[in-house]
Amino acid sequence: MRKRRLFAYILMVCCCLADVIAQTQKVIGQIIDEDYNPVQNATVKVKGTNLTTTTDKDGNYVLEEVPLILDTLEAEKGRRKNRGIEVPMKIKMRTQVMDRFSWFIKAGIGTSQFIGADYTMFSEENPEGNLTYYGGAGIDIRLGRHWSFQTAVILSYTKLLDRGYDYNTSSYYKRKISHDPLSLEFPLLFALKFKIANRTNLVFDLGPYVSLGISGEQKYYVYDSSYKNDVLHTVDLYGRRFTGGGIAGVGVEIRDHYLIGTSFKIGATCMDHGESYMTFSFELGYKF
């Protein structure tokens, strides 16, 4: 237990350090002369760094990957060099800084199944399928040009149907096992984003999640010699101990707002950590 807590603390510290170290922003501004005319082909530099750019015909400039903490920008035209541009007075920063933090909502539907040596799927005998539904909201924190950290609160319902295995007869039970928890999930994902078109990104995300069951039940059969038959057992999943697993996904951000993707999840059930399951889902979302 202590090792698990230590590992969790180390993970949290690493996430915080990565966020602090990689904090950058996009800086947009305009250079004008004493007569309020735009200055073309002026060199703009972040003081104390090698980050430079050149103004366009309207005097506008854009600087990428600028440290979040900076004091001054320097502008130079030919041999003339100004005294420095005060960041709070000359640069449109506020909107760009807030863009590092964006809220999103998403929902998904997919298939699920038990995995492991004691379980097998009988999809032809289960026409309704093993389905999972989920929806929730979260925050996307930009860490750099390509990286971001995503966390959310997701309400998830998973329907798992399967058969138990009898080692004595080397056969599967005729009666099915059902596991249908409604749970709160807290994913902690790192996302890698690549621009593939104007305002469109290809996104890969990967990370762990933790989960807590809030309702549902598990039903299974155990042979009772006194009855000489299998007896149904039901376990309430409310408030079962924390569990979790891992999530991997790929998707597309369209026009910086619309989210389309797929997600693969593998984890332990909240009934027994020795029982595992996996889900494959299709999801839609919107980023504010």
TrEMBL record:
Keywords: Signal. It comes from the Bacteria. InterPro entries: Beta-barrel_OMP_2 (IPR025665), CarboxyPept-like_regulatory (IPR008969). It holds the Pfam family OMP_b-brl_2. Residues 100-264 form the Outer membrane protein beta-barrel domain. Residues 1-18 form the signal peptide. The keyword Signal applies. Gene3D superfamilies: Carboxypeptidase-like, regulatory domain. This is Outer membrane beta-barrel protein. The lineage of its organism: Bacteria, Pseudomonadati, Bacteroidota, Bacteroidia, Bacteroidales.
